[in-house]
Amino acid sequence: MSPYALGPRLAAVACRTAHLGSMSMLVGGRFFAVPAPxxxxxxxxTAVTGVALLLSELSHSRHWIYQGRGVTTVAxxxxxxxxxxxxxxxxxxxxxxxLIGAVGSHLPGSLRKWSFRHGRxxx
Length: 123
Prior knowledge:
two-stranded antiparallel ribbon, globular
């Protein structure tokens, strides 16, 4: 790895770590029925780090949105949005987002970079 690439890589790892940490606090809080106002900082940090990860992913490929990595990200965000349909879906949506994010982050490159638009792997 080039020393010039090390900075962005470290920033991406730090951002992903912050996202996982804040998401874990949010999921735990939802699971243990912590009052919503107490979870607002974790929800905000999860959203901010999620947007930062999204921007990082967008910088990797212009095809990102219709590749496996983009589709799983849209599903991840969509699962979090379930709470807006019904408050009873808040916990289920948050847990679903956690699961989708975990699976999507650990897919092999051939699936993460699979383009649904082109029917093949694109870098």
